[in-house]
Amino acid sequence: MLPNTNLFYTIDFELERDPWGNYKNFEIIKIEDIDMSTIDDAMFTENAIADQDIVYPVYGLYFRA
Predict the structure, then answer these.
(1) What is the total count of domains within the chain?
(2) What CA–CA distance (Å, rounded) separates 31 from 10?
């Protein structure tokens, strides 16, 4: 069970080769970056800014048509 705190975590994905070549039908594309350094959140005091940049990249899994 996770503690009741604000935790950030990352998950890594990669397309693995398969015998039928289905991996070629998909791609992982970076969509945007989310800047969390100025977010008013429970991690910081109200309206505070983080001491360092907190930027998280966002990726999407796409089917190649």
Answers:
(1) 1
(2) 16
Which residue ranges in the chain fall short of pLDDT 50? none
- Kindly provide the b/e burial profile for residues 11-29, where b requires at least 16 CB atoms within 10 angstroms of the residue's own CB: eeeeeeeeeeeeeeeeeee
Q: Tell me, what's the pLDDT at 54?
A: 77
Residue 46 lies in a domain: yes
Q: How far apart are CA 40 and CA 47, in angstroms?
A: 5
Range of 56's domain? Answer: 24-63
Helix, strand and coil content of the chain, in percent to the nearest 5, comes to 5, 30, 65
At CA 46, angle to CA 31 and CA 35, rounded to 5? Answer: 15
Model confidence, pTM: 0.52
